[in-house]
Amino acid sequence: MIKSMTGFGRAEFEVNNKKITLEIKSLNSKQIDINTRIPSLYREKEIEIRKELSEKLVRGKIDLTIYLENHGEESNSKINEPILKSYFGHLKKINDDLKLLTDNSTLHAALRLPDVVKTEYETLDEEEWQVILENIREAIQQIIEFRLQEGKALENDISENVNSISELLQKIGPFETQRIETVKSRLNDSLGKSNMTENVDKNRFEQELIYYLDKMDMNEEKVRLENHCSYFLETLNQDSQSANGKKLAFISQEMGREINTIGSKAYESNIQRVVVEMKDHLERIKEQLLNVL
């Protein structure tokens, strides 16, 4: 059974007066490629998040986003009252000296001065983090299930194309017999037109014809292609937890080599048509394999 690299997982929950929404998206990629967008509060846990994603999802372009909405009444920004009062007192004294009015604008000016507003950075609560980690794992599990469902659809489509190649391979046999007779007839016609029929050594002619037809023989390629198709389906149906996408891609490359060799030895239009159809099915297989884990 194969898995797709496409998937989506989402979790939404509340912890410590915070509403947290996390989303994980997975797309196909040759290697593991992880991108994270997380609040600074959880940045220290990024390595742990990446490890969790790479171990469970193995391969693909992974995007993880954590949205944080604080429902608490307290703000991280605090007013430093002693410094504000000191600034305000100095400004009031200057206004009095200059016979200027002291009002709300004086307070606003004091609030903009250095160190009046200070930001207190929150430290990460380990219990809060454990809740977040459990939800990350839940979202990852959603992706794994999504990948399995997508994998079934991919498996069906790929199997149909491999079986089509096997069926087309069986159609080549009748055309091969016809091709040999065609080659013999063509050579005899050429000799006849050249008025060389009487001077030809028939034994030598038969030897050369056998040598020529031996070079055109494609039985080995047909046997190897059939074996590759069987091995491909066997690998496709393996109940394996490991990724099979790369292995299947290697097998499809070997299938392509045998199909190309059969095409180069064809010398017959009907066989060439069959080869073109096999190549079409192989391209569909390769396209689908790009998304197989």
TrEMBL record:
Claim: Transferase is one of the keywords in the record: no
Highest taxon listed in the record's lineage: Bacteria
GO molecular function: hydrolase activity; RNA endonuclease activity
Sections of the chain in a coiled coil: none
Keyword Methyltransferase (UniProt): no
Cofactor dependency: a divalent metal cation
Domain named Endoribonuclease YicC-like N-terminal: residues: 2-155
Keywords assigned by UniProt, alphabetized: Endonuclease, Hydrolase, Nuclease
One protein family per Pfam: YicC-like_N
Chain ranges of the Endoribonuclease YicC-like C-terminal domain: 176-292
PANTHER family named among the record's database cross-references: UPF0701 PROTEIN YICC
Family stated for the protein in its record: Belongs to the YicC/YloC family.
NCBIfam families: YicC/YloC family endoribonuclease
Record-given protein name: TIGR00255 family protein
Organism name: Tangfeifania diversioriginum
